[in-house]
């Protein structure tokens, strides 16, 4: 891996995305609209929104980044762009890191917009620092990017890439503790939730919701999310194929 090739790849991806307003809207607008919709769904009982809003502030970006990164990478492979790029002196690590950097930059904007709207427009009440909330939202978005880049290697079409969402995202959504506390789940489900990264993303948001300072649990949770994202990116580079058969 070289910094110049990684940065050149990231710049190319961002230039392509700049000419795709629908993708930009999906990344930057839809998560915030979903949070606004959720706030007014629970308009009669704002306490409910306050209890789950912080968790969804991390989950929505994770889902959107997963979709966009998996489909964008697959499109490059099916169009032959990826094969041409890898015929140049560009390693798989440079390519994956460049994609992660480009989508990471968009994740920063996405997290800033969604966090700002939640805190100052929708009056999401958190005890912890807004910067800690932003950090978790950003890590969740990067995790979604890493998962999307990884699963794109196993899809032969954009339709198949979307089909990975029920397999990769939905089980984590059901077992992350958003709907019911994880310690009340059946032992098998609890054990499964303990190895799913979204569980730690939700736990980290819960820590920000209830504690004014970063706790040891918060540091553990964010460390796990960041580590999983890096490991999945490495796996994505290892499994990246030049083209779809």
TrEMBL record:
Membrane topology classification: Multi-pass membrane protein
GO molecular function, one term: ABC-type transporter activity
UniProt superkingdom: Bacteria
Transmembrane spans: 24-42, 48-74, 95-119, 131-154, 161-180, 222-240
PANTHER family: MEMBRANE COMPONENT OF ABC TRANSPORTER YHHJ-RELATED, TRANSPORT PERMEASE PROTEIN
All residue ranges annotated as the ABC transmembrane type-2 domain in the record: 18-243
Family: Belongs to the ABC-2 integral membrane protein family.
Family matches, as InterPro entries: ABC-2_transporter_component (IPR051449), ABC2_TM (IPR013525), ABC2_TM_bact-type (IPR047817), ABC_2_transport (IPR000412)
Key words of the record: Antibiotic resistance, Cell membrane, Membrane, Transmembrane, Transmembrane helix, Transport
Single GO cellular component term: ATP-binding cassette (ABC) transporter complex
Protein location: Cell membrane
Classification via Pfam families: ABC2_membrane (PF01061)
Protein name: Transport permease protein
GO biological process, one term: response to antibiotic
